[in-house]
Each structure stands twice: as C-alpha cells, then as structure tokens.
Give the backbone structure.
Amino acid sequence: MGALPLLGDESEDLRDALAVLSLAVSPEQGRGLSQNKIRSSLARHGRQRNLEVKAAEIQAQLRAPQLELNAPKVVSAYADEVSFLVRTLLQVRQDLCRHREVVVVEARR
C-alpha cells in the first residue's frame, strides 16, 4: 500500500513528503530511516505538532511490505529522478516564501 494512506491535508502532506524524500528517494533508503531522522527532518521542514506520532506512522509505512522492482538500474534511475524533483520542489517552495515576504513588505508601504 505504501506511504499514500498518510495523505490528508495537502500542504502538510507535501511538506512531510518532501521532508522524507529529502532523506530517502528509494524504497531501500526509506526502510533504513530511523524515527529520529524522520522526526528531525519533519521538524526541519516545518512540522511542529505530533512529530513523534507522525514519524512513527511514516516509518511503519516505509517498512511495510511493498511491491519490489527487481531491476537495480531502473530503481537507481527512478531514485535519481525523484532526488532531482525533490530538490526542485524545495527550491520552488523556498522561492515562493521569499516572494511572499517581499509582497508583504511591499503591501505595507
């Protein structure tokens, strides 16, 4: 089933997904994440509440049985693509926050 059942509120889900994907872009990497690493990444990416519970839920989902692709080159290519997309989304999110700050400052003038 994977980590998709954890999706609820879209903005929180995106933030949390990027927090986890910034640490692990392949299923094997995801299975190896400790709750501490997940919790730290969630906090670093802006989650303030329910860190322990959310980290435990995410870790359980990452370690749950899933369909495996037995093609290392395909998994590696997929992981590279996910890594690129995560970096791009994080940069866009950072840029949007900076632009929002500029708009707020300009609106106060």
Summary: The radius of gyration is 16 Å. Residues 1-8 have pLDDT under 50 and may be disordered. The helical segments are 10-21, 27-31, 35-44, 51-63, 72-108.
